[in-house]
Specification:
By secondary structure, the protein is mainly β. It has one domain: Immunoglobulins (Immunoglobulin-like, Sandwich). The protein is about 0% helix and about 50% strand. The chain has no helices and eight strands. It has a five-stranded mixed beta sheet, with no helix packed on it. A three-stranded antiparallel beta sheet has the order 1-3-6, with no helix packed on it. A hairpin with a 4-residue loop joins strand 7 and strand 8. The radius of gyration is 16 Å and the shape is elongated.
């Protein structure tokens, strides 16, 4: 199970400026290849499989995650600011559970 995602974007930016968007979600990203130390049974796979970032409802970034990704996936990307608006970040695991966060970006 994941905990509340953390997002870091500039408080404001200029139109056309390229900004870095940083995201982090706390999740164990269990691969399904590890044995439980006490019981000796395989620990079930539990991974986040996709991440999508939208700006004003339009998808601006997407990636697929696989078992080789470490726990607590950190994802960053760059984008040119088209206008003021709202980011929406969505993480989805293989069971269909989702976590989402919205952040406002102002234009100066």
């Amino acid at each position: 199970m994941a905990s509340k995602p953390r997002i870091k974007i500039p408080k404001s930016a200029k139109v056309g400026e390229v900004i870095e968007v940083k995201t982090l979600i706390t999740h164990k990203m269990e691969t399904g290849f590890r044995k439980d130390a006490k019981s000796g049974k395989m620990v079930p796979r539990d991974i986040i499989t996709s991440f999508v970032a939208k700006f004003n409802g339009e998808e601006v970034f997407r990636t697929a995650l696989h078992p080789a990704i470490s726990a607590n996936p950190y994802i960053s990307f760059f984008m040119a600011v088209p206008a003021a608006g709202e980011f929406e970040f969505i993480w989805t695991d293989e069971k269909g559970e989702t976590w989402s966060v919205k952040e406002q970006l102002t234009v100066s």
